[in-house]
Design a protein that fits this description.
alpha+beta, 1 helix, 5 strands, 19% helix
């Protein structure tokens, strides 16, 4: 079964929990920037999307729920 990484991103009062396959992307600053841009293009808000500090989780099962989106970039 695939494992996932999860990180929370915020824009104003909005929050998205973004997840991606652990074996497809390396968690680094470049990936975070790509996700912030991708969120801005797909979920536009008045303010830019930014990562929430200390929200990163790895080796997780696929999440479900409100405000959960998959990044496949």
């Amino acid at each position: 079964m695939a494992k996932y990484c999860i990180e929370k991103f915020e824009s104003g009062m909005q929050e998205k929990k973004v997840y991606w396959r652990q074996d497809k992307h390396v968690h680094n600053a470049a990936l975070i920037t790509q996700i912030e841009i991708w969120l801005g293009q797909n979920y536009p808000q008045p303010t830019a999307w930014t990562v929430r500090a200390n929200s990163y989780q790895s080796n997780q099962n696929e999440p479900h729920g409100a405000n959960v989106v998959e990044y496949t970039g």
